[in-house]
UniProtKB/TrEMBL annotation:
Keywords from the UniProt entry: Ligase, Metal-binding, Transferase, Ubl conjugation pathway, Zinc, Zinc-finger
Catalytic activity, reaction form: S-ubiquitinyl-[E2 ubiquitin-conjugating enzyme]-L-cysteine + [acceptor protein]-L-lysine = [E2 ubiquitin-conjugating enzyme]-L-cysteine + N(6)-ubiquitinyl-[acceptor protein]-L-lysine
Protein's job: E3 ubiquitin-protein ligase that mediates ubiquitination and subsequent proteasomal degradation of target proteins. E3 ubiquitin ligases accept ubiquitin from an E2 ubiquitin-conjugating enzyme in the form of a thioester and then directly transfers the ubiquitin to targeted substrates.
InterPro entries from the UniProt entry: 7-in-absentia-prot_TRAF-dom, SINA-like_animal, TRAF-like, Znf_SIAH
Protein name, UniProt field: E3 ubiquitin-protein ligase
The SIAH-type domain, residue ranges: 1-55
Gene3D superfamilies (UniProt xref): Apoptosis, Tumor Necrosis Factor Receptor Associated Protein 2, Chain A, Classic Zinc Finger
E.C. designation(s): 2.3.2.27
Pathway: Protein modification; protein ubiquitination
Biological process annotations from GO: cell differentiation; proteasome-mediated ubiquitin-dependent protein catabolic process; protein ubiquitination
Amino acid sequence: QYATTGCSLTLHHTEKPAHEDICEYRPYSCPCPGASCKWQGSLEAVMSHLMHAHKSITTLQGEDIVFLATDINLPGAVDWVMMQSCFGHHFMLVLEKQEKYEGHQQFFAIVLLIGTRKQAENFAYRLELNGNRRRLTWEATPRSIHDGVSAAIVNSDCLVFDTAIAHLFADNGNLGINVTISTC
């Protein structure tokens, strides 16, 4: 199905659907959390789409930045999104608040590479919350935007913490997350 965009594999018809789900040549969906944006396009067009359709997303330069999530006490499901640009690549930083079960809200923090799965393997990221004599750290390989935020959350392959933990590190309802990207 994706031969026109570069996929050169020839598969038996029974293997085709499974491959198409993970094919690096399939169109990329908008990586922004939430289902409101239905955009799809090439990897090269993702950043242009984000800059034009999602103007509220801030981009910071450098491999070591602070991702500030404001008003973390807002009710319901909320997403905070920011871009980080370093090593010639763009990374999407996402903090998502969800109610996993009645009355229990959790935060999920993840870094995605605007790139392929193979490119993502060349990087590592560290998320760190710092507070009064407290530190919470998560280190992992970023996921490609092909995988998306929801896959990381479903597998708990991200920094996960509840509202009580968030309040230990928050300052007036704002949560600063130190984000460091490094090459492997």
